[in-house]
Specification:
three-stranded antiparallel β-sheet; 14% strand; ribonucleoprotein; Rossmann fold; alpha/beta; 2 domains
Length: 261
């Protein structure tokens, strides 16, 4: 099936759709501009993604971005409402091109993230992860205060290596005081261990689903290109924005709740 898609060159698209009490949803043109509609080659598809595929062009599947928009609206609204009630969203992506994006946007909205190797047991053995986090925070605090200088140079080097190792493994979740209610995963094939732990612990999964992904593993399925930097940047920013709105609502609700007492 040959599709004749509109081509956008040199156009700055700013149109978004915003419903009352809902996050901004990108327009169709916004999604096309960042390449969110490009899937994988037709021979590399997953049959369960058929419902989200608009057709194919030059041997590449084209994702139905109208469904991308509708699924985004559901997921973003869910996140905003959850955070407004004090919930936590965990950002997850260990794929190289998304690591910096995950750290940037998760940090900006004050949510935990995993962008290095997923540490087995992060959710299923959370108490042990908490112990590692406390160890990391303690060592880093002592080093910053100069309290490790009383040890030999060799011991100080060992402490530095331990801090660096813990930073890489759990640096993004040290302030995660409880198991999150939901997880955003940018590539379920790469981070399948994280997805399985989420399912085993009752943590809901929001996932970007390219045409080669089994979407049934996610509670919220967002059909889109999970390789394009532009697409990944847009998606992570949208969820960070939803968190910010939810956090703002939570702060506003606290004084109101206290006044009623």
């Amino acid at each position: 099936m040959l599709l004749h898609l509109p081509v956008f060159t040199g156009v700055t698209v700013q149109t978004v759709v915003k419903k009352k009490n809902m996050p901004n949803i990108p327009s169709t043109q916004d999604l096309l501009k960042v390449g969110a509609h490009f899937g994988h080659r037709t021979e590399r598809w997953h049959p369960k993604m058929e419902q989200y595929i608009f057709g194919s062009r030059k041997g590449v599947h084209i994702i139905d971005v109208e469904q991308t928009r509708s699924q985004l609206e559901k997921a973003l609204t869910y996140v905003e409402e959850l955070v407004a009630r004090g919930g936590v969203l965990l950002f997850v992506s260990t794929k190289p091109q998304a690591q910096d994006l995950i750290e940037k946007h998760a940090t900006e909205c004050g949510m935990p993230y995993v962008n290095g190797r997923w540490l087995g047991g992060t959710l299923t053995n959370y108490k042990e992860i908490q112990k590692l986090a406390k160890r990391y925070i303690s060592l880093k605090d002592k080093r910053d205060k100069g309290e490790l200088k009383k040890y030999t140079k060799y011991e100080q080097v060992q402490f530095d290596r331990e801090i660096e190792d813990l930073e890489e493994r759990i640096g993004g979740i040290t302030k995660m005081t409880k198991i999150p209610q939901v997880m955003l995963v940018l590539d379920m094939r790469i981070d399948k261990t994280a997805v399985m732990e989420a399912r085993n612990t009752g943590v809901k999964v929001i996932a970007l689903c390219d045409t080669n992904i089994d979407p049934s593993m996610a509670d919220f399925q967002i059909p889109c290109n999970d390789d394009s930097i532009g697409s990944l940047m847009l998606m992570t920013r949208l969820f960070a924005d939803a968190v910010k709105v939810g956090s703002s609502r939570a702060k506003t609700a606290q004084p109101a709740a206290q006044e009623k007492k």
